[in-house]
Amino acid sequence: MDSLDRAIIAELESDGRLTNVELAGRVGLTPGPCLRRVQRLEADGVIRGYRAVIDPGSIGRSFEVLLDLTLEGQDATTVARFEETMTGLDEVRELRRLFGTPDYFARVAVEDLDAYE
Q: Residue limits of the HTH asnC-type domain (predicted)?
């Protein structure tokens, strides 16, 4: 990875919707070589995808809660069932397994405090 690859990554982190022509202009390349670099970065797994950042309030989820969660049981069945349940909930925006206490960190977005409770 060289400085041009890093420049491409920085520009795409800032605005993932740039056209290839815009991106090429910003990093000082012509469109062909720029596209090949982006495709290589994607194929190599450096760029793993593109996503939209949604305003939570516009979809009725303006109340965000950060949770530290500790499981009573640590066996494989309990952990798998918990993770399956949590990842199946639309309100759960992020779930991370931690080592130590607590066992998990979750970011949950709901309409309001009543919906959370």
A: 1-62
